[in-house]
Amino acid sequence: MTTLSSISRFLSSSIRLQNHNLSISRFSTATSAETVLNHLHRNGGKIEKTLDSMRLNLDAKCVSQVLQRCYPTQSQLGLRFFIWAGVHSSYRHSYFMFSKACDLYKIRENPSLIFDVLEAYSVEGCSVSVKMFKVLFNVCKEAKLADEALRVLRKMPEFGLREDNVVYNVVIRLFCEKGDLDMAESLVKEMSEVELYPDLITYMVMIKGFCNVGRLDDACGLFKFMEENGCVPNVVVYSALLDGFCRFGDMERALTLLKEMEKEGGDCGPNVVTYTTVIQCLCNKHRSVEALLVLDRMEARGCLPNRVTVSTLITGLVKEDQVEQAYKLVDRVVESGSVTKTDCYSTFVVSLERVGRPEEAEKVFRTMLNCGVKPNSLQRHLVEAAELARVMLSKGIKLKAPYVDIISEVLVKSGDEELVKQLTRN
């Protein structure tokens, strides 16, 4: 039954729409957004039908302008336009546009707007599609609204629409991210009641969710169940489980799973992110020499390390007083071309400074300069750069241009003006 409040909101929206025409009349040249709003005014409350009749060639600029002009007095109209645009044949919302809409309309703080729109659809007898609901689910996803996404899911049958795996997976993911695995599990079980079955995304989301809260045995059980039911895991699923093992310090199971991935190969084969995750965990546990063996396996499979991989290894080796191994690692990766000299030497210098070995850091820094590497990356490490400058000054080492200018520029940001004066003094 239509309530007085819903009718009031609908009439209020129509009145505000008429008032909006006055605010746009002062523009001499109509923009796309103004054209849209003018047409909506002339056709009263038939929002979606009016928009369909306009045959617009939508783009992100037009959508953004309409959203901005509808805020804050006509937020319901703005959201309805956003939903309509999201299913338009010539346009698709980007991640940025979902983010912008949620931020502008403060969806997280004002989720009732979503249900005001659904109520307006019902009051007006609008034709609503599954695709339109999926736009709303993505709005909930962007705003991280798990409970509201579940309410939207429950609304679908009221419009004669059937849920599918995509919408269930969005809601399940939101509850997993919220940490409510019990609700997520109940939704997975509910899927079978509506003749739907978990797919690869469902399993991946649930396994990641279990791992995030430390329920590793449940994650392993679901992984096994998944395989037994003919759903073949890919590298994303394997990596989610591996990341869980590493995060909670279960290195033995992580290394066993890594071997299994290497054995499976294909879509299940480990990639640079997978190997780096294991290397980071080993280094965090002061097992950096063992992490080098993982690097060997990685390169043997034709998977080259990236900057994060090498930085992690250098830092770990230096912390464990394996400086010679760090030198060898730098030579090795620079020769292979997988990581630049700048990244390697900068990490090396900073790591040595942080463990209290300024003399060694100064040595590596001079090697860095002799190789023609500019120390620009030290701008991210002001404290270490300042300490390095002090060591060099104490030893009477003078930098030549252009390096003295680069280091001075770094030190200016640290606020140590006296050190800059000493460094640049002839």
Explain the layout of strands and helices.
Elements: H1 4-24, H2 32-42, H3 47-54, H4 60-70, H5 75-86, H6 95-104, H7 112-124, H8 130-143, H9 146-155, H10 165-178, H11 181-193, H12 200-212, H13 216-228, H14 235-247, H15 251-264, H16 272-284, H17 288-300, H18 307-319, H19 323-336, H20 341-354, H21 358-370, H22 382-394, H23 403-414, H24 417-424
Helix pairs in contact: 1-2, 1-7, 2-4, 4-5, 4-6, 5-7, 5-8, 6-8, 8-9, 8-10, 9-10, 10-11, 10-12, 11-12, 12-13, 12-14, 13-14, 14-15, 14-16, 15-16, 16-17, 16-18, 18-19, 18-20, 19-20, 20-21, 20-22, 21-22, 22-23, 23-24
Report on the architecture of this protein.
- The chain has 426 residues and is an all-alpha fold.
- Helix content is 71%, strand content 0%.
- It contains 24 helices and no strands.
- Helix 5 crosses helix 8 (130-143).
- The longest helix is centred in the N-terminal third of the chain and has 21 residues, at 4-24.
- The radius of gyration is 29 Å and the shape is globular.
Net shape: globular
Total number of helices: 24
- The N- to C-terminal Cα distance equals 87 Å
Approximate helicity band: over 70%
How many E strands? Answer: 0
Q: Tell me, rounded to a whole number, the average pLDDT.
A: 85
Largest sheet: none
Task: List its traits.
426 residues, 71% helix, mainly alpha
Give a quick precis of the structure.
With 426 residues, the chain is mainly alpha-helical.
